[in-house]
Every structure is written in structure tokens, then in C-alpha cells.
Amino acid sequence: MKRTNVPGLAGLICALVPALASAYSSGPLDGFSNNPPIYLNCTFCHATYELNSGDGDLQILGLPSEYVPGQTYPLTVLLEDSGQMRWGFELTVLDDSDDYAQGGDMVVTDPVNTQLSEDSEGTRDYLKQTTEGTHWPSGGPTTWSFDWIAPDLPSVTFYFCGNAANGDETSDGDYIYARSAPVTRREPTPVSESSWGRVKSLYVRGR
Fold first, then answer.
1. CA distance to 85, 113, 115, 167, 203, per residue, from 126 (Å)
2. Bond from prior residue into 36 cis (ω within 30 degrees of 0)
3. Model confidence over 24-35: pLDDT tens digits?
């Protein structure tokens, strides 16, 4: 059930600067995908409701349980919440052994609705919606698609946050969702010696 939350300091700051809400329709600031090490998300400004307290859902579709390094995977972020009318998201992929390191490469395949940016240190990429990608006015569900080129790392985690907004050009009344999805590298299958190979080796040793 949806429930309200008393706005904290972050909500008061955003309330004093209402232009923030409409400004971020062109894409949120980097570092708000609920990723480590700080785990910031869109409730920093959209503070009416607690994180993940709405009736909606946020998913990433097409993600393999195991990935092959260098392979390209078409992925889709899906956000839905009945009654909301404007949509946004941010996503990053990080190396599980280093919270600051990028986990593979994200490729924009729909530049009208998605964009890619780097944080100030240039170590992590953030995929997010454009102004057109908010799909205003639309009752959803909404999707954004992109490609991911898998890295040669043991494991990575996708961190992503979605904003199901009511479209009133303020930070009030919007539901925020955050998810994480860990995936691991597919290890090569050991090549076992064939039965005929074992027979030949025994024959050679016996000669």
C-alpha cells in the first residue's frame, strides 16, 4: 500500500528550489542510482514517499544469469506505477570488487529517450532518460532500451533507480524505486578427454 513520509532535510531543500524538479526531467544528476559507496537515490529530492513504498515496479529485462566477456546484451529498463504520468531512471554497472570501477560498457541505442554521462571522476558511466524519454503524458508502463558489453570481470552489479512522477512539475507526489541485480561471469567449461583419447593414451603407454 502506498504511504506518505514526512519530508526530511533533503525534501525541504528541494521544496525551497522548485525548479530542481523540472530541471531534472532532462536527466538526473550522476550518482543517484542507489549505488555504492553512498547509495544516493531520487528520494533526495522526491521525498514525499519512502523508497520502494509505491504499488509500482522497476525491473531490468534481458539480463543473463551469467555473461560472456565481450558479448553484447540488449537490455531494457521497465518502470510502472498505476496513476503516475511521467517517468525517469538512472542506471550504472559496477565491478563487485571495486565500488568505483565501471562494470562493462553501456551503449546508447535510443538517443531520443536515453543518454549516457560520466561522473566528475570519469570512472563510472550513468545511463538515464532524456526529456523526451520521460514520456509525458503517459500512464505507463514505460521502457528504455540499451546495450551492455560485458567485461572480463568475475562479477558485476547493476544499480538502477526509477522515478514514477505525477507530472505536476514539482518534486511532490512522486514514487521512487531502486533495485540491484548482480550477475557473474560464465567460466569456461573444462574440456574432458574423450573415451577414445583415454584408450589411445593407454595403448601408447602400454607399447
1. 23, 14, 8, 23, 60
2. no
3. 678 889 999 999
Cell numbers 544516493 correspond to 40
At residue 160, what is the residue type? F
Predicted local confidence at residue 68, as pLDDT:
98
Whole-prediction pTM = 0.81
